[in-house]
Design goal:
Length: 456
């Protein structure tokens, strides 16, 4: 069997292996192309693989889809794939559908600096996003779910935390043998966990971005400094501009189908400071297992609630497609014991929003997401939600204690608002500080409702 990989893979169970060794081992233990996605279950990294056994030609990607894949669905002898949907749309001359144009004009999409389309949709009906946990047959253009395929193993919090800590530690050690690490740090739990996992690794570049709306007393700026002083690591604070220069704006538009003005300004501000030869190590995907939405009291998901949590309240396009996703995933969840909520955050929110946002930073750096590994995700999904939820996030906090006890002493930010609500507030703050962009009246009304609920 022939394996082709775009990007890079990390095997925490074989941290000394490079990409070639990983591919050779995968080819040896995998009987055919159809089984390749399951055989690659242990791999972290940011990659796309194509398995060819002479009969089947199967494309799949890393667990949370951080290396994005968009593909054509039109009736043709050719199959087009790209990392941006606009590239595929241009190749097949697709046209934005009216109902999807309305979604682009919605309060949610216009007012959110990290807006996204429910997977597998894009603005073009003939172009689809490859949802995490799914593979694409390049000959027939059929998409098939391959994970989860076996029952979830339920773990005690201590066992789940120890297993996750071990996998994180080995993933970071393996990555540090390939490239130098650049670790962003805020007052949040996710970036602190990654920092703790770098214990024993030399020459880690720690930094914090100061974006418009943060003052020097903000926890996201003061806490990283205290944490790194305690860990005896150097801290780099980088001020971000309020806007992009015109040339960089054009580059962003050319490289991303749906660019973010906010992310672009941050990215351009980082360019002069980001050290050459380093790879960013963000905490993306850890939100999947931290369960920040506290949905224990709603064991069964519904499309309207999912849209509400994502800031897409009442949007018919989002509700319709979340309903389709639920119809497909519910039998899988019932058969394997995985929660619909956890799979939603993995396959929809972070498998689309985080992957899309990560691709926007490719102009500045490559990224390695240690939580993007099935062993870690499965271990923590197997821990009861009450140990993963606010305000304590006990199991997640325990991971940090195991990795580097000194890293857990300072307080964490623990926002109890949804992603959509937090994004609205960020947009409003940045607009107040001169960042260009529009926020609709509908979004301002929703922001007022958020503030009223918080005060109440």
């Amino acid at each position: 069997m022939r394996l082709t990989m775009l990007g890079f893979a990390i095997d925490p169970l074989a941290p000394d292996d490079d990409d070639l060794a990983i591919l050779r081992a995968l080819a040896e233990r995998c009987p055919d192309a159809q089984h390749a996605p399951r055989c690659a279950a242990d791999l972290a990294g940011r990659w796309i693989m194509i398995a060819d056994d002479g009969t089947d030609l199967i494309l799949f990607h890393d667990p949370c889809g951080m290396r994005q894949v968009y593909h054509s669905t039109w009736d043709s002898t050719e199959t087009w794939c790209a990392s941006q949907p606009g590239r595929v749309a241009g190749a097949i001359q697709a046209v934005v559908a009216p109902v999807r144009r309305e979604f682009l004009r919605s309060d949610y999409y216009r007012g959110n600096h990290e807006s996204w389309f429910p997977s597998p949709t894009t603005p073009w009906p003939e172009v689809r996003h490859l949802t995490p946990n799914h593979s694409l047959d390049l000959r027939t253009r059929t998409v098939q779910r391959y994970w989860p395929h076996s029952p979830l193993r339920h773990l005690e919090p201590e066992e789940g935390a120890h297993l996750s800590a071990q996998l994180l530690r080995e993933s970071l050690r393996a990555a540090s043998q390939r490239f130098k690490l650049a670790v962003p740090l805020t007052a949040g739990m996710d970036s602190r966990t990654i920092t703790a996992a770098t214990r024993g690794i030399e020459d880690v570049w720690h930094y914090t971005l100061s974006w418009p709306g943060l003052d020097r007393d903000s926890a996201d700026l003061t806490t990283p400094r205290r944490v790194l002083r305690r860990l005896r690591r150097k801290h780099h604070l980088i001020d971000c501009p309020t806007s992009m220069t015109a040339p960089f704006h054009e580059i962003c538009k050319a490289s991303s189908t749906l660019p973010s003005y906010t992310t672009g300004a941050m990215a351009e501000g980082l360019i002069p400071f980001f050290p050459e030869g380093h790879v960013q190590v963000p905490g993306h995907c850890s939100e999947i297992i931290r369960d920040s939405f506290n949905v224990t009291d709603r064991p069964r998901a519904d499309a309207e609630t999912l849209a509400d949590l994502m800031g897409m309240r009442g949007n018919p396009f989002a509700i319709d497609h979340f309903d389709i996703w639920l119809d497909q995933v519910r039998p899988v969840a019932e058969r394997t014991g995985y929660r619909e909520w956890d799979l939603f955050f993995m396959e929809q929110e972070y498998g689309v929003r985080a992957a899309q946002n990560q691709s926007r930073w490719d102009l500045v750096h490559e990224a390695f997401t240690p939580f993007n590994q099935r062993g870690i995700l499965s271990a923590m999904m197997g821990v009861e939600p009450r140990y993963r939820q606010a305000p304590d996030h006990a199991a997640n906090r325990r991971i940090i204690e195991i990795l580097w006890p000194d890293a857990v002493r300072d307080a964490f930010n623990a926002p109890e608002k949804s992603l959509g609500e937090r994004s609205i507030e960020l947009c409003l703050k940045m607009r107040q500080h001169g960042v260009r962009g529009t926020i609709s009246k509908g979004m301002e009304r929703l922001q007022a409702q958020v503030a009223q609920r918080s005060n109440g």
